[in-house]
Queue: 3 jobs
Job 1
Amino acid sequence: MRSHLPVLRIRRRYIAFEVDCEGPVRQSDLAAELTLVQTSLWGDKGSSLNKIRLITFNGRFGLLRCAHSRIKETRAALATIYSINGNRAAIRVKGVSGTIKAATEKYIPRLSLSNAENERRRFELEGISGWIIHSRGREIDISPDEKNETKGSDTRYLGLTSFDLCGGCYYADGTADGVRQGYNSIQP
Amino acid sequence: MSYYESCIHALPEGSDSASRLALVAKRLGYSGIIICNHTGYEKVFRPEAVLGISRIKVAFGIEVVAPNPRSLRSKVTAARGKYPFVAVHGGSEEMNRAACENPEVDMLVHPEEGKKVLGIATAKAAQKNQVAIGLDLSPLIRLRGNSRSRWLQIVERNIILARKFDLSFIITTCASSRLDLRAPRDLQALAEIAGLESFEAEEALRFPGHLLDDNCRKWLGPGVEIL
């Protein structure tokens, strides 16, 4: 005998998301933060209706399940995530789908972790100086020498792009934009 | 689509450069952002770099902070000629009132900071001078527990009052880094918690774009435009 009649089946939605965080994120930390955030915003009763469950997480992209009628509430709960394990973080919803397969194929890229490059290079421009922590595509994160540069926003790093560096840093060993030319270097 | 995020703080006040904020906002689905640093931080780090980023409009405005109504008036008049978007950092009751009584002001941001609801006289003045009320959602993201519920109480009162006097809203996060930015649909969901209806929230996200277009035209006087 089937356990559920088709009309009584629980309908679900799967939300694909990306975590934008200053440090590395573990799945257990993310799950703990999710529980904390949604009980704080919706209370115990609301959380039971939302039925949020973390399905997969690979360090950057992940998938979670929620009730099909409570997507808006789940989005609001995800938007209130401010930090994960002490690091500033934000969750960006990539898309919503009805099955795990569709959500994974549509919204989660297969090669997602390998393209962040860690490099220790110096950066000095218009009164801002520091070490380049990592760069991904056009985005460059910088750890400033003066820690009170970031005191207004609780973040640890300064975020710049390659457009900021273009033409400003002629002496930074070799390249005009101060970023190493390499396998994922920034093409002007 | 044409959603706008107004009142973002860029380097040196925030921790991200204007071009980085534009890049992240474009990915989140905005069609434009307005960078409004507080008075004292007007000189944005490399504003010309945003030209490299396509398909997003970046405007530079200012958020005026003043200790008293008198200096507010002079600062707003000075800023109006230079910037297409002038916001005022509210807080105390007299500053809210002074901002709403000035027709040169576009938006009053966080009027609930002094933990007081807007007065009737302030709302009437805002209606007359077409000052939009900025609904800053960052306390909803950052605070937890009792302080957040207090904040929600004040904001709900403000929304009821603004609806009665037919004021326009602008939803913002007052972001000072890319991690404070939220997608337009996330902001809609948050604004519905604060008490806005869904269509009001959508309108509030579009409103800065219309305001910016109006401000960029050359007005000779009220209702007279140079073509």
Job 2
Amino acid sequence: MKPYIPLGIYLALMAAAFAAPEYSKLIASVAFFMALGQAVNIFVGLTRYVDFGYVAFLAMGAYGVGVVLTYLPGLGLAALPVGIALGVSMAAALAAVVGAIALRLRGAYFAIATIGG
Amino acid sequence: MEVIPYFLSGLIIGSVYGLITLGLSLIFGVLRVANVAHGSFVMIGAYVAFFGFTLWGAPPPVAGIGALALGAGLGALVYYVVVKLLMKAGELNILVALFALGLLIAEAARMAWGPDFRGYTWSIGSVSLGGLVVELSKAFGALTALVTAVGLEVFLRRTYFGRAVRAVVQDPVGAQVVGIDVERVFLLSTAMGIGITTLGGVMLTLFIPVGINPYMGGIYTLISFVIAVMGGLGSIMGAYIAGLLFGVFQSVGYYVFSLMGFAQPFEMALFLAFVLLLLILLFKPTGLFRL
């Protein structure tokens, strides 16, 4: 039952965004913070590693979309999935590099290693 | 040798970096807690210096004593409100709670004092030293840092309470067995550590003429962690000497990178410092030197 709760909230948000476009910006930021909270929960909550550098990965995603929108202007709406794919793969690559180093450390030492992110 | 003035000014700012790191290293050594709210206490110290000087005309030495007392009180509060309550819940919960506390302090400071960059100038003349004009106010900051570091080290080695602190650092359970009140050591170490951090914030304002603002703490949290790891987490003199090294690294690095034509030599030096942090944590987690 549990996985249907976020799905339900998501669908409700989408419906609200279509029903009341004037609030779409607010709804987008609600969805944004939900995703951000889930991401932190997967890492800090489930793995018990306290990571202070996660906003670096957020920035990678934003940067990926920014790069696509800036340098590939002819894509139109397709820019969104391409940008998301680029941002996610850049963030994953960065996470692989950082993780390869920082995950060798435990507890407070891991937190200290990621605080510079 | 054009690099000598950079080396000297690196030593002077590095001394204050060392002072800022002492508290972090002490708290980590005793409680095994990484104080990620560290920078916010530096920020509080900086505001004490600023308001002391502009509202009451109190010079930084007076503000330093006030900040030390205020910081010690805040430290005791942090121990009772955050650390002691969460000790059983595990270190990760303390980390997250301290992170939240740091944000809370910064946002409260912004609500109370506004987001502007502020600053003041305490001019007490300057001397020429090896081709570098050293303002006496900065020399005072560096000297205060040195005296505090040596004083703390002597306190930890020579007094009964200091020995109790070192016993807890070595083995908390063993210390409890021989009758040391471990909780009191925790409380007083947190109070001392945060007191010294706010004192460091006061001395820091002598180096950043217009850099006092509610969010200034973040970068000093980072710098302090790099220095504390370099010096060996928990080592007092190690932290101070690593602070000197970091100051020289930053200052000479700035000089070298601007010679090499980097657009942002300061950021480049800082970036390399964090690479250094990762490498030391991986290969030499006890720090660069044993003291």
Job 3
Amino acid sequence: MDDQKSAETQGATADTAGNGTPLVKMVGIEKWFGKVCALRNINFHVGHGEVVGLVGDNGAGKSTLIKVLSGFHLADKGDIYFEGNMIHYSSPKDAKRLGIETVYQEQALAPHVSISRNVFMGREPTKALGFMNRKMMDEESMGAITRLGLRIKDPEAPVEALSGGQRQGVAIARVLYFKAKLVILDEPTIALSVKESQQVLDFTQQLRAQGISVIFITHNIFHVFQVATRFFILSHGEALTDVKKEDTNIDHLIELIVSGRKEKA
Amino acid sequence: MQRFFNRFFSFRASFTLLVFIALLILFGITSADHSFFKSANLTALARLAPDLGIVSLGVGMLMIAGRFDLSVASTVPVSSFVFTKLLGWGTPLLLCMIITFCSGVLIGYLNGLLVTKTKLPSFIVTLGTMLFWRGLVYAASRMMPIGIRAWLEFGSWIEKMLIGSIGGVLPVQILWFLLFAIVLGIILHFHKFGNWVFVTGDNETAAQAMGINTDGVIITCYVIVGFLCSFMGMMQNIRIESFAANQGVGIELKAIASAVVGGTALTGGIGSIPGIFLGTLTIQIIENGLILMGAPPFGISAFIGGAIIIFAVLNVAAARVSGR
């Protein structure tokens, strides 16, 4: 059954990828923490310009999968391909270099530091001798934020002064500016109001409109149903389903998540 | 105008600036015979205030990175002791100075290494190193002062450099304080390293996720503190013409107080060099002004303590006003 499943996934790959190979492909990923199996034979891919909803309950393995993809964990088994080339991570920096950027909830920003300094945190554009080019930082950060469809006036304002949705916007603007090819949003709506969540969904659409692929991690299918083009559901380290939006509906997905059992082939 | 006010209040040291000016006026009027503004008093302030000030700049910057250093209280006498011993051995002056700096830098580096590797609260780690170095320096000196006049002739270049005065009225100490403030201010507020200091103190996880070597940032800050302490230890040593075992006693908390009065947050990520500069001057003019007003000198710390609490409250209020 597993073989059959992976064959299906391979088939789907060829379909979704506009120009042949998918952006990212993870094949046969396994990850153990001691005697606990966090991921079991996961085949996962993201095509160009796709928004993949990665859904599962707490402890389903979503974070582990993403940490393997972004180089924080090494997989015990399996291969990762980026644009068709097999990759071997030695540090999370390798993933960034490829254009894989993760936006972590509430962990991405320094609240008392200005918006522009947050956007360029660790990658400050400099003039001579390492002094920051603050004019450029202000202009470019505002540019990226505007491209997301977010309106903020003052690049010097501390992030603390922004709403939750706007903060996510700043964090996403950062990866947009640094030319990410794949943006991983880790539970971006978890602490947000309904209105702010909608704002984050709009950002996701904007990313997609600019040709950037997105993995949208959530344990709430309702948050992601609107924007995702495909759903990948995990439970206890195993893939329950990998289905395109047009081939499913929300009731079916909820049923799968609740039952926690794989689809019958 | 609205914008100007917002900017002004978002500068967390704004209250400190207002209070600083108010205190200048207050002490100017109320001190007997307006002695506060007499040149003798101002010169004395300019000579003595930098002792605490120079150390506070480093301690405050480290606090912005989210760490404390209590061991400054011992780095100062260790440096002073090293300098004195080197002089006694007839070491060339330049070499004395360089090795003294090295001792401060080394202590700072060890602090940084201990704090980042053990991942323990810096308050505890540097409390330990403070007691450790203090004990060593007490043992080595048997707590006896050691005069330096036998080995250092009057008017040597190092004396002119560290405790001389310009035109006979302007002590160079205040110029050194100003110079360190300007250099550190430029680094902290305009250099990318400064941005790393802020984000390390504000959200270390985020800083690491963005590829910033936060351990490196923290260690560098400790090294800067160590350097400044050895500078101050040497400066004080030459001023009082000796090593004294009680050099630096109490400075660790006074330096933290200066930084807090200047708007630095105890939790890291917030602060400014102009603020710390003003904060340390404020503490010193309160001390000085109160004595001139006839406050009992031995009870001075009661006033300082009260002032620190008032400033901490005011700074939080300022942050709330600007937070909108």
